[in-house]
UniProtKB/TrEMBL annotation, chain A:
InterPro entries: TBP, TBP_CS, TBP_dom_sf, TBP_eukaryotic. It comes from the Eukaryota. Residues 66-81 have a biased composition (Basic and acidic residues). GO terms for biological process: DNA-templated transcription initiation. The keyword DNA repair does not apply. Keywords: DNA-binding, Nucleus, Transcription. Residues 48-104 are annotated as: Disordered. Pfam families: TBP. This is TBPL2 protein. The keyword Cell membrane does not apply. It is found in: Nucleus.
TrEMBL record, chain B:
Keywords: Activator, Metal-binding, Nucleus, Repeat, Transcription, Transcription regulation, Zinc, Zinc-finger. The keyword Membrane does not apply. Its main location: nucleus. General activator of RNA polymerase III transcription. Factor exclusively required for RNA polymerase III transcription of genes with promoter elements upstream of the initiation sites. Contributes to the regulation of gene expression; functions as activator in the absence of oxidative stress. Down-regulates expression of target genes in response to oxidative stress. Overexpression protects cells against apoptosis in response to oxidative stress. This is Transcription factor IIIB 50 kDa subunit. Gene3D superfamilies: 2.20.25.10, Cyclin-like. GO terms for biological process: transcription preinitiation complex assembly. Belongs to the TFIIB family. Residues 318-362 are annotated as: Disordered. It is found in: Nucleus. Residues 3-36 form the TFIIB-type domain. One of its GO terms (molecular function) is zinc ion binding. Residues 340-362 have a biased composition (Low complexity).
């Protein structure tokens, strides 16, 4: 889990090349309504320093925050995308990204302000957790014949003796879905909320094409997993002593410390190398907030005792 | 009813079953002698037919301990006896067990888990009273699977809301070493291998502290660290005859298991010691390697604090002042703060020139494993709105063609 912003300018600098997302706090409850974006596919908005106009308009749904931007590697390459196939939009269905891509999760510059009111640079960590996995559920609202689906779909596996659902995979966004005969579906593996929604819609479309009257009801993000690196080793024994009511550190069982934060209700896995995994969030802002809460605590354990 | 034998008094065969005040009696019809009375039925069916008051209601069975609970409590008590724990521990463990078993989370689990629950209660009690009991010991006593034990332990902690302090390494050292057989004379132990317990414990403690200062303990299983430290301590107390004894043989002689990570811990400890040794002026003359450094462990431990500061570069570039332990000024200035390198540093052998120093970091940071997966998704992925139109062709690539379906049907015989 690389920290992408180790070499990038400080997050508060408006010169970030990354486009912005604004997970406005009020929107976190309303994940149902989705407003369609105006299409910005040909416009490069990377020069915009701050909250863009369309973001202000889309103040309901958190998903519809991002604008499209140039896809052809004009962004400084930070990470090697490696195994990940090009996540190009549908206008370039087959094009693989030529250069290593920048991290897909845009650093939300402005969410720092609602969470940490003090704007002094030394107080914020300057590190943004990256989302690694999103789990969502949706109701297709029709009974499904799983054997039929497994027979007619290439990307499906179905072993009723092992598990009572069809496991279906699509390449883009690279995700996996569990489809149950009741019509409920679980979609995992996406790296952002929008990707999860798009993937779920694609699965629903596949089911539709297989002849079932599938709908797309009650799409809900159930869990989000993020990770980041604080770049210094952490004394886990010390942390478990001072934060005993929240931490569980059993080196005989697991090398990391399990920190159950109360507000927001997030579970963090903290390792001696400084890597932190955050999970249990229903909303992206919870992950960011949790990390901002834990960072000053971890800094306290930076130096060897 | 049918006569069952003869009356002992008059020999008559006419026996009658009668009820006297609702008490069954077998009476001889001829002489009136009572053969037997008050036959309490012992068969369950009889009781049922008579509709007597139910056993559980009449005897307050609900207030009594269930058989399962009794068995569990006995198990906990046996465990405490085997581990030779003080009596107070037993009471606490039993009370935890009783509380836990009432909770729905543990009431309906398998018997195997209930046994493990008993072991977990003992473990929690020991941890709270700072008695160094390892999970490995409890698991081996209960013949338990480590994963299952782990899950029961964690859920017990959560359900009862117990605060379980961490295992104290210092206590673990004392307990672990007391089980070593090298401390008493015995037939199969050569004389030079015998060691005094106090000295061994003291030196092992010092090495364990050194290990925890240098990030060798955090996140790792404690027992292999203690084993490796004990081995080093034992070797260093009398290096002459003992240097040639490998770790495996040492564990066999001591009568303890050799945990697999102990070899790695030993290697790491030796690296640390070598780095420290390079900072001691009177040792610099020797070209120490992993074997010979053991002879000087005593010195190194004595000046441990100073050497740690000198031998390793500081994370944030802070340089400690040279407090001078006979170091000649001709050595030159200490390595500059700009030097500390986060990546893998050259080995200790090169530190004779006081060049680049290894930073004091956990081994997982010094030797990062090759990353199997890239962390970041593409930039374009972020541009996804979730509401893009989905092309038919894209979906159709996931559907089987009719020929494929026919072939599959033939091959797999879908019913």
């Amino acid at each position: 889990f690389k920290d992408d912003f180790s070499t990038s300018p400080h997050l508060f600098t408006p010169m970030s090349p990354y486009d912005l997302e604004l997970p406005i706090q009020a929107s976190s409850q309303l994940s149902q309504s989705k407003e369609l974006h105006t299409d910005f596919s040909s416009v490069d908005l990377s020069f915009l320093p701050d909250v863009t106009q369309d973001n202000k308009e889309q103040n309901l749904s958190e998903d519809g925050q991002e604008t499209q931007k140039e896809l052809d590697g004009s962004l400084p390459s930070k990470e090697d995308s490696g195994v990940f196939m090009g996540e190009s939009s549908l206008s370039h269905p087959g094009a693989a990204q030529p250069s290593p891509e920048a991290p897909g999760v845009c650093p939300p510059l402005t969410p720092m302000t609602p969470i940490t009111p003090a704007t002094s640079a030394s107080e914020s960590s300057g590190i943004v957790p990256q989302l690694q996995n999103i789990v969502s559920t949706v109701n297709l609202a029709c009974k499904l014949d799983l054997k039929n689906i497994a027979l007619h779909a290439r990307n499906a596996e179905y072993n009723p003796k092992r598990f009572a659902a069809v496991i279906m995979r699509i390449r883009e966004p690279r995700t996996t879905a569990l489809i149950f005969s009741s019509g409920k579906m679980v979609c995992t593996g996406a790296k952002s909320e929008e990707q999860s929604r798009l993937a779920a819609r694609k699965y629903a479309r596949v089911v539709q094409k297989l002849g079932f009257p599938a709908k797309f009801l009650d799409f809900k993000i159930q869990n989000m997993v993020g990770s980041c690196d604080v770049r210094f080793p952490i004394r886990l024994e010390g942390l478990v002593l001072t934060h005993q009511q929240f931490s569980s550190y059993e080196p005989e069982l697991f090398p990391g410390l399990v920190y159950r934060m109360v507000k927001p209700r997030i579970v963090l896995l903290i390792f001696v190398s400084g890597k932190v995994v955050l999970t249990g969030a229903k909303d992206r802002s919870e992950i960011y907030e949790a990390f901002e809460n834990i960072y000053p605590i971890l800094r306290g354990f930076k130096k060897p005792s | 009813m049918a006569a069952r034998g003869r009356c002992p008094e008059c020999g008559s065969a006419s026996l009658v079953e009668d009820a006297h005040y609702a008490q069954q009696q077998l009476v001889c019809a001829a002489c009136g002698c009572v053969l037997s009375e008050g036959l309490l039925t012992t068969t369950y069916t009889d009781e049922e037919h008579l509709r007597e008051v139910a056993y559980s209601q009449s005897t307050g069975q609900k207030e009594q301990l269930s058989r399962c609970l009794q068995r569990g409590i006995r198990r906990v008590q046996d465990l405490c006896k085997v581990l030779k724990l003080p009596a107070a521990f037993e009471e606490t463990a039993v009370s935890y067990f009783q509380r836990a078993l009432e909770l729905p989370a543990f009431h309906l689990v398998s018997l195997e888990k209930k046994e493990l629950l008993g072991g977990c209660c003992v473990l929690v009690t020991c941890r709270q009273r700072r008695w160094p009991l390892t999970m490995g010991t409890v698991c081996s006593l209960l013949y338990a699977k480590q994963e299952l034990f782990a899950s029961v332990f964690l859920s017990l902690q959560r359900e009862l809301g117990l605060s379980v302090p961490a295992l104290s390494l210092a206590d673990l050292v004392t307990t672990h070493l007391s089980s070593f057989r090298l401390l008493q004379p015995s037939a199969n132990i050569p004389a030079p291998f015998l060691e005094d317990k106090e000295q061994l414990v003291a030196r092992t403690m010092a090495i364990v502290e050194l290990a925890s200062d240098t990030w060798l303990v955090t996140g790792r299983h404690p027992v292999p660290v203690v084993t490796a430290a004990a081995f080093l301590a034992w070797q260093s107390l009398r290096p002459g005859p003992r240097l040639s004894c490998p770790l495996a043989r040492f564990c066999r002689l001591a009568g303890v298991e050799l945990p697999p990570p102990a070899q790695l811990r030993l290697k790491e400890l030796l690296e640390i010691l070598l780095a420290m040794a390079s900072q001691l002026s009177w040792l610099r003359a020797f070209r120490l390697d992993k074997r010979t450094v053991v002879k000087h462990v005593g010195d190194l431990l004595q000046h441990r604090l100073f050497l740690l500061k000198r031998a390793f570069s500081q994370q944030d570039g802070l340089e400690q002042q040279d407090t001078g332990l006979g170091d000649s000024p001709a050595q030159g200035p200490p390595s500059s703060p700009a030097v500390p390198q986060q990546q893998g540093c050259p080995s200790a052998g090169q530190q004779q020139q006081r060049g680049t120093l290894r930073p004091l970091l956990p081994p997982c940071l010094l030797q990062p494993r090759k990353r199997l997966r890239a962390a970041a998704p593409s930039a374009a992925g972020a541009a996804v709105t979730g509401d893009e139109p989905i092309s038919d062709s894209e979906i159709e690539q996931y559907l089987r063609s009719p020929e494929e379906i026919r072939a599959f049907r033939k091959a797999k015989a879908w019913s």
